[in-house]
Amino acid sequence: MTPLSGKPVVTAAKMRAAEEAAIADGTSVDILMARAGTEVAQTIRRLASGSEVLILCGPGNNGGDGYVAAAALRAWSLPVRVAALAPPATDAARNACAGWSGPVETLAETKSAPILVDALFGTGLSRALDPAIVAALRRLNARARLSIAVDLPSGVDTDRGVALGDIPAADVTLALGAPKPAHLLYPAAGLCGAIRVLDIGVPASSDVMVLAAPDLPMPGPDSHKYSRGMVAVVGGDMPGAAELSAIAALRAGAGYVLLLAEHGALQPHAIVRKAFTPDALTDKRIGALIIGPGLGRGDEARARLDQALASAVPLVIDGDALHLLDTARLDVVRNRAVPVIMTPHAGEFDALFGKGEESKIDRARAAALRSGATIIFKGADTVIASPQGAVRVAQSANAWLSTAGTGDVLAGAVGAFLSGNANIAFDAACAGVWAHARAARRLRGAFIADDLADALTAVRSRL
Ligand SMILES: NC(=O)C1=CN([C@@H]2O[C@H](COP(=O)(O)OP(=O)(O)OC[C@H]3O[C@@H](n4cnc5c(N)ncnc54)[C@H](O)[C@@H]3O)[C@@H](O)[C@H]2O)[C@@H](O)CC1
Ligand SMILES: Nc1ncnc2c1ncn2[C@@H]1O[C@H](COP(=O)(O)OP(=O)(O)O)[C@@H](O)[C@H]1O
Ligand SMILES: [K+]
C-alpha cells in the first residue's frame, strides 16, 4: 500500500487558501512555519543518521521552513550548515531566519555535505530558475549522498508538473500538508524521488485525489455468471488485442466474457466466441462492451463502432475506436443515456481533444466534461476524470508496462468492473486502473501483456 493513496491532491492556490484559512482560524503563519520546519527537521534527523546536513534556503516561506529546520537540528546538536540564495523576503521567513544562530553561507560558495536539503523554492516559484542557481544545485546534489527536497524540488511547476529548467532529481521529497500535482505528474514526479507527506496541521481538500484501492464485491451464494457481470468484446483486424481484453475481463472477475470475432485463438476455453453480428449487441445481459482493441480502422471497424454507439450497452472505447471518433461520433457519445469510458494514451488524447499547456489533470477533466464520458488518460501518471469533475491520479505502477497490449488488458479490466456496476462508471474506471497497476507491480520486469492479464486473477482475489 502506498502512503499517498487516497490523499487529496492540492494545487498551489488551494494550498495557499488552506493556509490562509488556518491563519484566519487563529494559527499565525509563524506557527505554521514552525510546525512545518520542525516536521521537516524530524524527518531529516531520521534520514541523516548523524551525517552533516547542508540546508539551502530561498527567499520565501520554503526558505523559512529551511531556517526552522536548521535551528531545530542545531538545537539537537546535529551538524548542520545553512546557505542562502538571497535574504529572506517575507516576514515569516525573516523571523525564521532570526531563529537560526549559525552563519549563513552563499549558495555559490558553500561546500557540499553528505545530506543536501533543498529549501530554495516551493509552491511560490513563478518563473524558471536562474541558470547559476541550477548550476549550484546540480553541483551540490551530485556530491551529496542523499538529497531531500522540502515540499517540492526547487524548479518544478507545482500545478503543471513540469520542470522549469534542467534541475537535478531529489532522492526524497517531503510534501508539506498534502501532495501537489507535481508530486504525481511527470516529468516533475520523476524528480521527486520517494515522496513523504508531512502533516503540518493545515487541512486541505480537493476533488482531485490520489487513486486508492477500490472496494469491490466478492461473489456470494447468490452469485451466478451473469450477475458477476457479462462483458462483450468486439473483435476486428488484429485478433490478439481483443483476446487480451477478453482474458483480462475474465481474470478481473467478469462472470461471462463473449468475444465477438471471426477469427482468433481457441484458448482459453472460458471465453465464449461468436462471430460479430449487430444483433449480438442487443443481448440485455451485456453489462459492458469493449470496442477498439485490434478493431482496425476500415469501413467494417467504423460500422461496428457505430453499432456499438447506437446500442444501449455501457461502453469502453479504446485503441482504434478512439481514432475513429470524429466530432459527430463524439456528439453521439455525449448524448448517450448509458455510460462511456474512454482510455486514450497521450497520442490518442491529443488527437481527440487537442494538445494543451494545462496540467494533465485539467486536460483530463476538461475532456470528460466535453465528452460526457469518463476519461482514463493513460501514462505513468494515469489520470481518471468523471464528467462530474471528480479526478483520481494514479501513482506510477511499473515502467515495464510500456509494452504492446497492456492497454488492451486495462480495457478488459475496466470492462469487467463496469459490467458489474455500470451506475458508477468512474468507480469502474478507477478500479480497473488500480487492478492493472497492482498486477504490473507484482510482475516487476520484462513481462508481456499476456502475463499482465493472467496476474489479474491474484489481484482481484485480494480486492
Ligand atoms: N502552504 C502551507 O500551508 C505552508 C507553506 N509553507 C511553505 O511555504 C512555501 C511557499 O512559500 P512562498 O509562497 O513564500 O513561496 P516560495 O518559498 O516557494 O518562493 C517564493 C519567493 O521566491 C521568489 N521567486 C519565485 N520564483 C523565483 C525564481 N525563479 N527566481 C528567484 N526568485 C523567485 C518570489 O518572488 C518569492 O519571494 C511552501 O512551499 C512551503 O514550503 C510552510 O512554511 C508553512 C505552511
Ligand atoms: N512508462 C510507463 N510507466 C508506467 N505505465 C506505463 C508506461 N507506459 C505505458 N504505461 C501504461 O501501460 C498501458 C499502455 O497502454 P497503450 O499505450 O494503450 O498500449 P497498447 O495499445 O499497446 O495496449 C497504459 O495503461 C499506460 O498507462
Ligand atoms: K524546495
UniProtKB/TrEMBL annotation:
Family listed: Belongs to the NnrE/AIBP family.
Known function: Catalyzes the epimerization of the S- and R-forms of NAD(P)HX, a damaged form of NAD(P)H that is a result of enzymatic or heat-dependent hydration. This is a prerequisite for the S-specific NAD(P)H-hydrate dehydratase to allow the repair of both epimers of NAD(P)HX.
Native source organism of the sequence: Sphingomonas alpina
Name this protein carries in UniProt: Bifunctional NAD(P)H-hydrate repair enzyme
Taxonomic placement: Bacteria, Pseudomonadati, Pseudomonadota, Alphaproteobacteria, Sphingomonadales
KW ATP-binding (keyword) present: yes
Record's keyword annotation contains Transferase: no
NCBIfam families, A to Z: yjeF_cterm, yjeF_nterm
Domain YjeF C-terminal: 208-463
Entry binding sites for K(+): N62, D118, S154
Cofactor note: Binds 1 potassium ion per subunit.
InterPro entries according to UniProt: Carbohydrate_kinase_pred_CS, CARKD, Nnr, Ribokinase-like, YjeF_N_dom, YjeF_N_dom_sf
Gene Ontology molecular function, alphabetical: ADP-dependent NAD(P)H-hydrate dehydratase activity; ATP binding; metal ion binding; NAD(P)HX epimerase activity
